[in-house]
């Protein structure tokens, strides 16, 4: 692997590590949404379908974000591993291991580093989009709750 490819892998790993921050912000929102979905209907005298529905969607967006956070963190570790090896082509060994674990289809093995970076960045953008959707749904639900008071 060239020095330029190692630097690209390292920078991508550092970028993907920011997914932890996104996840740290999303998890409390997910927990709060789940608590509201489970507890609020039993305390209110009526069924606030819009409110509970909005919080259910926020919880679903949070669970999607959590899945994406796991994928992004895994990719970050792979990019750091690839960047740390100076001899040989680390991607070949990683592809073989991922294929044996059924985590990578054989058709995707041997991709160019730029294609790998593009895929990892796409996952990271999806993670951020899931958080933004979750925030918007929580704000929408909070607005509904405020109007019902």
What would you say this structure looks like, in words?
This protein has 149 residues and is mostly helical. It has one domain (3-148). It is 83% helix and 0% strand. The chain is built from five helices and no strands. Helix 1 (3-17) runs antiparallel to helix 3 (49-84), helix 2 packs parallel to helix 5 (113-148) and helix 3 (49-84) runs antiparallel to helix 5 (113-148). The longest helix is centred in the middle third of the chain and has 36 residues, at 49-84. The chain is elongated, with a radius of gyration of 20 Å. 26% of the residues are buried. The model has no long low-confidence stretch (mean pLDDT 89).
Features:
149 residues; mainly alpha
Query: Main β-sheet, in a few words?
Result: none
The unreliable regions are none
Number of β-strand runs: 0
Rg result: 20 Å
Structural class: mainly alpha
Work out the count of structural domains.
Answer: 1
Shape: elongated
Instruction: Give the topology string: H per helix, E per strand.
Output: HHHHH
Distance between the termini: 62 Å
Tell me briefly what this model is.
This protein is mainly α and 149 residues long. It has 5 helices and no strands. 83% of the residues lie in helices and 0% in strands.
Describe how the helices and strands are arranged:
Blueprint: H1 3-17, H2 19-43, H3 49-84, H4 90-100, H5 113-148
């Amino acid at each position: 692997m060239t020095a330029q490819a190692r630097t690209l892998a390292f920078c991508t790993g550092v970028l993907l590590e920011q997914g932890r921050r996104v996840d740290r912000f999303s998890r409390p929102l997910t927990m709060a949404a789940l608590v509201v979905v489970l507890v609020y209907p039993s305390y209110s005298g009526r069924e606030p379908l819009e409110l509970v529905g909005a919080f259910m969607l926020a919880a679903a967006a949070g669970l999607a974000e959590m899945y994406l956070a796991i994928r992004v963190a895994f990719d970050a570790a792979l990019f750091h591993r690839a960047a740390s090896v100076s001899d040989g082509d680390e991607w070949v060994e990683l592809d073989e291991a991922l294929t044996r674990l059924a985590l990578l289809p054989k058709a995707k093995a041997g991709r160019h580093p730029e294609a790998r970076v593009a895929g990892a960045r796409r996952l990271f953008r999806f993670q951020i989009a899931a958080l933004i959707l979750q925030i918007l749904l929580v704000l929408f639900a909070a607005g509904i709750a405020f109007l019902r008071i």
